[in-house]
Amino acid sequence: xxxxxxxxWKSVRKKKQSNNLFLIYLDDTCLKSNQGNIIQLxxxxxxEVIREWNADGKIDCMKNSFYTKFCFSVIDMTKKxxxxxxxxxxxYGNCDPxxxxxxxxxxxxxxxxxxxxxxxxxxxxxxxxxxxxxxGLIFIEQPSLNSENIHKFLEGLNNFHLVAVHELTKSVGSxxxxxxxxxxxxxxxxxxxxxxxxxxxxxxxxxxxxxxxxIKNIKxxxxxxxxxxxxxx
Length: 233
What we know:
By secondary structure, this protein is mostly helical. Helix content is 60%, strand content 5%. The chain has two domains: 12-75, no CATH class; 79-232, ATP12-like fold. The radius of gyration is 20 Å and the shape is globular.
C-alpha cells in the first residue's frame, strides 16, 4: 500500500523469490496492492510494472496505469469476486455472438460464416459441447452441459489468466473468440477482425465516421495491451 500522493522514491527494482516470482521495491519499500497485499509477478510483467512506477507523475496515476491496475486487481481478487468473474464468462458462452450469423446482406453473411465457423468447430471439440446457432436477434438457448464444461475449464485457471481472459472477452465481445486467442488457435489480428466484422462491413458500405474511428482506435490499443499481457503471464 502506498502512502502519500507524490513520488518519493529514487529507484524501482525487482527482487527474485524462491518461487521464481519477483517482488517490486520502491527504494526499500515493497510495493503492495490497494488492499495491502504483496505484489509477486513473473519477470517480464514485473518489468512492465517497474516501468510504470519509474515514470514521473502522481501515485494515483501510476496505480491506474495499465499493468499496475491489472496486477492490483488480480492480487486483490477475493474468492467471491473470482466466482463472479467465472459466472460472467459462462454467461458470455451462453449467448456468444459467433453463434448468431445474419442471413442478409449476403456479403456479411458469408464473412461472418467464414470467420465464425472455424472458432465454433474448435470450441465444440475443445469443450466437448454442441453450440446451437441461429440467424436472428432472438436468444438461442444452449445445452446445459455447455455451462458445466466451460465452468470446469475456467476454474482451472489461476487468477492472472482468468482476469486476462475476462478482459479479452469484454474487449472482443466473445468468450470463444477470446479463448481461441488465449489457446493460440487464432491470431490477434484474426480475433480483432472477428470482433469487428459488422463494423468493418458497415464502413465498407457507408464509410468511416471520425468520432467512431477514434473510439475504435482506443479500444484497439487496449486490446493490444491485453494481448501483450498474455505473453507476460
